[in-house]
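hey so u asked for the seq, here:
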Amino acid sequence: MHKNGNIRDIAATAARLILDDGRRFKVTTVTDITERKWIERQLRYQANLLQQVSEAIISVDNNFKITSWNKAAETMYGWKANEVVGKQIHQVLPTRYLNDTNDEVALTVLQTTGEWTGEVIQPKKDETEIVVHSSVSLLYDTDGKVIGTVAINRDITAQKAIERERTELYEQLQQLQKMEAIGTLSGGIAHDFNNILAATLGNANLILEKATDEKLKRYAERIKTAAERGAALTRQLLGFARKGKMEVAPVDLMQSVRNVVEMLEHSTDKRIQIRIESIGKIQKVLGDKNQFEQVILNLAVNAIDAMIPTLGEKREGILSFTLKMENPPNENQNARQSYLHLAISDSGTGIPKEIRNKIFEPFFTTKEVGKGTGLGLAMVYGIVKNHHGKIEIDSEVGKGTTVYVYLPTAWTSTDRKEQITEEKQRMQLSSNKKILIVDDEEMLRELLVEQLVEAGYAVYEASDGLEAIKMLNHLKAEQIRIDAVVLDMNMPKMDGAKAFAEIRMMFPKMPILIATGFAQDEVVQKLLESGANGMLSKPYNVKELLEKLKEIHEM
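ran it, structure tokens below
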């Protein structure tokens, strides 16, 4: 104890001293080691602290030999300290830098600033790789001389996986929103085209029927051909917009694949082998057979085009179709609903990652000018989504592409709704021959009026829903009975859906035909289920209209 009352640590040594005269003494030397003992305790505390932290702490000397390796490093990498201390750090932890950094850049920053922080990939003892957040600092001795470096490393593999998943989900959401927006735009454009094309085709047909001049007929035939090409393009746009005409029925998809393959075999390069395989019992899918075959054909043609550049004297291409019962991965769905999985694989050039998210967009194509419209895969996307299915792509440049299509199997609630609709259509009343045409496109109305009058009908016309209601009230007051209404869905002032409801309130048994370019629109489907007598898909010709009216008259 010191005079001031403080406890001090001391080190004492004793020795025997014998003088020349024979006297004996005991000499004791006492050294105050309080400060040294405090430093030792601090060093032990710090050493223990370094062993307890969750981050891996690794130090190396100027020759890059490992000088310390804490317990967290043992846990993180799997190496025990006695296995690695004294070894070269690059032998134990070969490092790959992320974010456009390399060993030279990191070393330059460390030597210039005294520290470097970044993300790297390093192997564990079992050779699995982890993503590591590393913070490296220079180590100095008491004279300020650099004696090595110390790294504090943290395993962020799980964190990076979560970040990647979040990024992928966000990109998927953006892509879906973009596709929905493009679909809405495409549908709107297609609606206007339908009205124009219907009038163009109708008038071209009138010229062909009535003209006697052969030159005039040739001109009309060219107009008709051009308009029909425009109508085909419109159908593709509506297919992408998921509003195209669809005939729903159970479909044998394996037979559809065979139909497409049979057609392809006559035109495909003989160096390409086509294989078809089914795994297990295959159920039918619910939907439009023609649209399914369009999907298969488009995907197959794209696959063949991707294989052509890879074909050589000795190398062959392989196009395979595989069907099995399998639900989409990671899909929230009704457990009672099963799916048919169609995989279409090719050994072609593959799709670069940077354009993979664009291939279903309308008018996007990698083909030369004149060899592709960019609507084929957009139509595929629209048809699959329209059938409540899912489509995914797995591709690697130089190795080929596989497209996975998942479609709900038959006899779902959608199928039952179609049966109800058909029953209601069969229950409609018979018709005489007084027709009201309701459409905002004047040119189309004039054409229909002229053709229906020639067919023997008395025809009235209205340009929108409000005008139609007024006319029906006027005709009712005049005791003139209208026997059928042809009602356009997309009109100003009062659209077709509201007009349908008003007409049904005034005339509960009035036969009504819906005319629309959006055959799969939810509103249209509800009107059909509510008792509409049928639907005309724009652009339609007068022959289709007359056949629908005849069906109503015969009921």
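The two ends are 119 Å apart (CA to CA). The first helix runs from residue 34 to 52.
lmk if thats what u needed
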